[in-house]
Amino acid sequence: MAVIVALLLILYMSYRQIVRAYPQSGGAYVVSRENLGVNASLLAAAALMVDYVLNVAVGISAGIGALTSAVPSLHAYTLPLCLAVLALITLANLRGLQDAGRFFAVPTYLFVACLGAVLAIGIFKAIAAGGHPQPVVSPPHVPAATAAVTLWLLIRAFAAGCTAMTGVEAVSNGVDAFKPPVVKRAHLTLTAIVAILGVLLLGIAYLAPAYGIGAMDQSHEGYRSVPAQLTAAVIGQGAFFYVTVGSLLCVLSLSANSSFAGFPRLCRLVAQDGFLPRPFAMVGRRLVFSVGIWYLAVTAGALLVAFDGITDRLIPLFAVGAFLTFTLSQSGMVAHWLRGRRGKRGHRGSLAINAVGAVATGIATIVIIAAKFAEGAWITILVIPAVILLLKTIHRYYERLGEQLREAGPVDVHRGPPPLVMIATEGWNRLTDRALHVAMNWSPDVIAVHLTSLGGPDTDDDQKVLRRQWAKDVERPAKSAGFRAPKLVLLQAPFRRAHVPLLKLIEETQAEHPDRTIAVVIPEVVKQRWWQHLLHNHRAWRLRSALLRYCSDRVVVTTVPWHLEPPRVEEALEDEERRTAVRRA
Amino acid sequence: MAVIVALLLILYMSYRQIVRAYPQSGGAYVVSRENLGVNASLLAAAALMVDYVLNVAVGISAGIGALTSAVPSLHAYTLPLCLAVLALITLANLRGLQDAGRFFAVPTYLFVACLGAVLAIGIFKAIAAGGHPQPVVSPPHVPAATAAVTLWLLIRAFAAGCTAMTGVEAVSNGVDAFKPPVVKRAHLTLTAIVAILGVLLLGIAYLAPAYGIGAMDQSHEGYRSVPAQLTAAVIGQGAFFYVTVGSLLCVLSLSANSSFAGFPRLCRLVAQDGFLPRPFAMVGRRLVFSVGIWYLAVTAGALLVAFDGITDRLIPLFAVGAFLTFTLSQSGMVAHWLRGRRGKRGHRGSLAINAVGAVATGIATIVIIAAKFAEGAWITILVIPAVILLLKTIHRYYERLGEQLREAGPVDVHRGPPPLVMIATEGWNRLTDRALHVAMNWSPDVIAVHLTSLGGPDTDDDQKVLRRQWAKDVERPAKSAGFRAPKLVLLQAPFRRAHVPLLKLIEETQAEHPDRTIAVVIPEVVKQRWWQHLLHNHRAWRLRSALLRYCSDRVVVTTVPWHLEPPRVEEALEDEERRTAVRRA
Asked: What CATH number matches the domain at B420-571, 3.40.50.620, 3.40.50.300, 3.40.1400.10, 1.20.120.350?
């Protein structure tokens, strides 16, 4: 326990430095990128991303563990309760939880006050009883040997410490969210977190053995979490007990919620550097990065389901990631100070602090991996490189895209021949008339492609009828309006795959006219209501997709819309104004 | 039981008439449409559609009931087993089960042979024992009073009879699937079905009370279906028992499968008349009407889940629909004969047969509704009008669509001014160069709309840089190539809703130039692989949808594609050839 508190102190000192050096928003990813290069930053990003996901699962699971300690009849519903809390947090974040801080402040203060009181009373009683106080409610008998229990307690405390340290990382990642004076406020927050945490951890470390409290297996009925046992032992299971446990649930949910602030921010930074898909960098409707939130919710939910809501086994994984991150950001700071101006006051001190931090967290990382390798740390060793590989693959794709699209200097424009315009349709009516009008005013070379799904003996007769009608209804009026008459091509288009014969025709036409653009005009009935999608067969959509996908860059596709009801542009504009108003409110 | 056999005989005679009169494909929908008008045909269609869905659920549930009678340890898995059989049947039908008949023929013959043998042996034993035979395996004790048991048995037999009668309807609906001579073969099939069914029903009716067999509640452990009890009682639970039960499962699945043949065919007929969405009339990749199959599978699956795989309660609903259908097709035939030539030989006889059929089935319908009103028949009374209302609403939509799009006589084309072309983009690169080229060769009036997501203090500087670059890289080369220089408009496009400022600009432009078409050119990186959809933000797609939806018919949208890899049209064509080859094989 003392080791953990020492580590916490070292981290506290080091992160003070980081906050001062990177007041815009420093986190391990930025610190490593600036000071250690791309690979180190990707390592940090991967470790952090994994940890954020684990943090959500572990935090919610622990919170529900506290709840089921107080209300044992809910134990059977551990997983549904976990998922419900996850859904609640996700929803709050998707809607842009601006007052998250204020919303969660009450239970946090309450929890600190309650547990502080419990610890104070407990320590008083323990000292008064000479180290062997009589619990008000006896903790359940834990059959395991004391050594094993202590080890387990240590690991749990360690995990709690890690979560708290992630809180430290969250502060350094979100410095720009503080009100000015930024650095001072961030420092104050850091101090408060670390001080409270240290006191609480030390108090529990002293009282748990004194009252004979051990950690229990959460998957068994009758599970009681350590803080719940402690509170019951010190002050009994009265109203105060329930208040303490309730605030504990809130605080643990809050620790999960911190991932929902941190993960999308981290993803945005990584996406802006081109290592994650661009949608991660896009602000959603409510000024939050919804893609990141969704991604976090789904993966954390999958973890909860996979582990049935009991995530003790994830804690070693979590610790590896956390300490890897700490080591990287400390090392980054060491590099930062080494590179910086030597003469500045306090420079050597800062360097020393971060160097000690880097070495300490580095050793901690190695110790955890070695000690917990078989218990799950090996998974992290596999997952983190896989994530890095993915990030690099994504980056390579965007690089290739950028190379192909790079700004081209002066535009190469020249007057070319007009395009060959093809109108693809299944029948002739007012909708296709509009398409003909657009096409004939675009180019003198218009080919009307009539896709028929006819077949059998009547085809020849039908074709004759169509051609006669075409001559009368289109060719004659076109000529008298001074146009070159459009050509009619009849294509047999079987069933759903109407695009195949058209693709063939375009291929042949392109081979004949390699220098000309081909513009395919598709008339389309616009679906203005959702149920209209069920009533049409989406041929226009399928045709357009196939043309874009399979034809060359010289084939452009134009949609001529037809509206059944007059379109209402006001709707879209008003909708936007309402949204803006909501955002402002 | 005698009543049911009588009804069966009447139906048999009447359907012989229908097959003869409508050798192309009769069925209640067509017969009512031709003879009784649209409303009657919709009533028939609604009743039939509901019944087809119920038939799938009831058939599969009964089949699994037979299976769990033989293997009681499977009873707990009734619902999963039902859904598995449903999935199997659906898959087989989606893949175009051409040899369904042959595939199912073996178990059908086997079942008829087995149950025939069981009945023969049973009747022989019963007569030998003077009406009170000793069962080999005693049927489980059924606590209910004999009267109630007999009533329940009657209802079950009735339901079985209904299912069989739906088989009769299926024959008349699918006459065109027979080989010539069509009418003769269809008559033979009808005769065979009715004869076999009559014999089996009478046999069970005689033996069940003789052996003291009663119907049991399928939802209880230890459930045994009536045929399973009977077989066990007559010949014991040897290998023959399992063969009989196995073939029973197959036959009941086959009866569910008949819906998968009938429902999509019916839906196609109704969709061709414009009362169902058009996709129902579209042949899928494997020459089956996949939309209808999917719809049937999903609704039947929902019913099975809702009733936990035990569908006894659905049987009254089913009976109402079935007899309503029979009544309508009989009445239709009566109208058919009344309208037909009087003098023809056998005319009076046919009329009499169908009239008796219409009256008998009409009375049966009323009796069922009255007797089973509280037990579920009232649901049918609600659902069928709702379905009719839906069908009519769909038809009204298509009628309105048709009116708006009706063939327009000679095309009204005239040489108009060239369109105003707008290029919507977020940056300038080789992709937008191609769009510029297309736009400038289309019209002298090109407006390049640059959608920026910039904001804050740097905006003005950025805009100056953009305008300077535009002058150098676009305006100058355009002018020297003899074009009018395109105009640059910078629009602040916030976040995801880039379309809103563009919609506003188009609104204003249209107000200024009410006579001109506006063509919006959108450059788009084509996604050629599925994972590319994850890596792009789909702005082009969102923009295009919004423009088509909210702007007037005078705004057309052109997509200029950009391919990261050379597109491979061969892929699409080869794919098609492979499919065609598969279809032919």
From this structure: 3.40.50.620
Tell me what pLDDT residue A292 has.
87
Cβ–Cβ < 8 Å for A291, A282: yes
Class for domain B2-399, per CATH? mainly alpha
pLDDT (0 to 100) of residue B457: 52
CATH fold for the domain made of A2-400 = Amino acid/polyamine transporter I (1.20.1740)
Interface membership of B392 toward A (CB under 8 Å): no
Between these two residues, A272 and B520, which has the higher pLDDT value? B520
* Segment holding B406, helix H or strand E: none
A495 contacts B285? CB cut-off 8 A: yes
Q: For chain A, say whether B496 makes contact (Cβ under 8 Å).
A: yes
Backbone angles phi, psi at B417, to 5 degrees: -65, 155
A488: DSSP letter? E
Predicted confidence at residue B289, as pLDDT, reads: 76
Closest CA to B13 of B255, B364, B328, B330: B330
The rounded percent of chain A whose pLDDT value lies above 70 is 80
Residue boundaries of the structural domains of chain B? 2-399, 420-571
Is B418 in the A-facing interface, judged by CB distances under 8 Å? yes
Q: How far is A544 from chain B (nearest CA, A)?
A: 9
Q: Nearest chain A residue to B576 by CA: give it.
A: A500
If we measure between CA atoms, which residue out of B59, B57, B61 comes closest to residue B75? B61
Task: Tell me if B2-399 shares its fold with B420-571.
Answer: no
The interface predicted TM-score of the complex, written ipTM, equals 0.72
- Say which of B277, B414, B430 has its CB closest to residue A481: B414
For residue B536, what pLDDT is reported?
Answer: 79
Condensed to tens digits (0 to 9), the pLDDT of residues A124-176 reads 888 888 777 777 777 776 554 444 455 555 555 555 555 555 555 555 555 55
Residue of chain B minimizing CA distance to A418: B441
Distance (Å, whole) CA A442 – CA B442:
6
- Calculate the dihedral angle through the C-alpha atoms of B451, B455, B461, B467, rounding to the nearest 10 degrees: 10
The parts of chain B modelled with pLDDT lower than 70 are 1-4, 19, 22-26, 96-105, 141-182, 214-219, 222, 283-288, 340-346, 407-408, 453-459, 494-497, 575-585
CB A282 within 8 A of CB A99: no
Q: Does A410 touch chain B (CB under 8 A)?
A: yes
Residues A452-481 have pLDDT tens digits of 765 555 567 778 888 888 888 888 888 888
Classify residue B539 by burial, with Cβ atoms within 10 Å: 0-12, 13-18, 19+: buried
Residue type, A225: S
List pLDDT tens digits, range B131-146.
777 777 777 765 544 4
Helices (H), B273-377: 290-306, 315-339, 347-371
The pLDDT, as a whole number, for residue B422 is 94
The answer to whether A544 and B559 have CB atoms below 8 angstroms apart is yes
Instruction: Compute how many other C-beta atoms are within 10 angstroms of the C-beta atom of residue A151.
Output: 13
Q: Closest-CA residue in chain B for A443?
A: B442
CA angle (B433 as vertex; B430, B436 as ends), nearest 5: 160
